[in-house]
Design brief:
It contains nine helices and nine strands. By secondary structure, it is of the alpha/beta class. The two termini are 12 Å apart.
């Protein structure tokens, strides 16, 4: 088995209906020529027994297809209880293959389609940046389907996040991101956010360490049935920004890995 160039976490909470369809498309496109060797980790975030069974069945069936390729693999891991999207992603990254050059995540609902996921993954080997993040930007050549309310709520949050942390990002909350593993792994113990603020925390911590970040405009189709609780989660996120900003300010900067190590890992996918 070829060591993975990318370890991709798919956090899943009660996604028994949408996850099988998304995984099927993800695997179909993974098997096309030219894809970087990839490990996909489906992390069940304490789903109900019904959804958990459907998610496990979907993951194991696709795992057999990928294993036959000898180039990719898929694993299903389950958290002991529901803790939130951020906690599930962090759990998956801790379980990831230690040889992976990049760590990433993508939402399980399929709002970021498999073609867009693999389009971004294809940029990693030649990337001059250390973090690649999707962005829902309505522009020529990109297709965005999103309700006006969610768009406006997202813009308000992005503005507040910018005021609190100065990240320079248009869309901190888009559900697909990749980071160089040598930069991210030493910081896993410093990531604390369990729910929706992990995206912001990840960007803030790695920028503090001097990571070069790039937003990539992507296609996005809102799938409905959001896990965000209207009002309550928004209030939690807005209140959490100030707390997060204070914690990031107190966090010591992490020395960057040697350039040779990053360079070696960058070229790993060329094998």
């Amino acid at each position: 088995m070829i060591p993975p160039y990318l370890s991709l976490v798919v956090p899943a909470y009660n996604e028994g209906r949408r996850l099988p369809r998304f995984l099927e498309r993800l695997v179909d496109l993974a098997l096309l020529p030219g894809r970087p060797p990839t490990e996909i980790l489906v992390v069940d975030d304490g789903s109900t027994p019904e959804h958990g069974a459907l998610q496990r069945e979907a993951a194991e069936a696709r795992a057999r297809r990928l294993a036959a390729s000898g180039r990719h693999r898929l694993r299903y891991v389950a958290a002991s209880a529901n803790q939130g999207k951020g906690a599930a992603i962090r759990f998956g990254w801790r379980e990831a293959d230690p040889h992976a050059a990049w760590l990433g995540f993508v939402d399980a609902d399929g709002a970021v389609g498999a073609p867009e996921l693999w389009r971004m993954a294809s940029m990693l080997d030649s990337a001059e940046h250390d973090v690649l993040a999707g962005a829902r930007v309505l522009m020529a050549g990109r297709h965005i389907e999103r309700s006006l309310f969610r768009h406006l709520q997202g813009r308000v949050f992005a503005t507040l996040a910018e005021q609190a942390l100065g990240l320079g990002f248009y869309d901190t909350q888009c559900g697909v991101k990749f980071a160089r593993a040598p930069l991210l792994r030493p910081r896993l113990g410093d990531l604390r956010e369990e729910r929706w603020l992990l995206d912001v925390e990840l960007l803030a911590v790695l920028q503090k360490d001097g990571a070069r970040c790039l937003e990539v405009p992507i296609d996005w189709v809102d799938q409905g049935d959001s896990k965000v609780v209207f009002g309550l989660d928004a209030l939690r996120m807005f209140r959490g920004l100030g707390r997060l900003a204070r914690r990031i300010e107190r966090l010591p900067a992490q020395p960057a890995p040697a350039n040779e190590e990053v360079g070696e890992r960058r070229s790993a996918g060329a094998r």
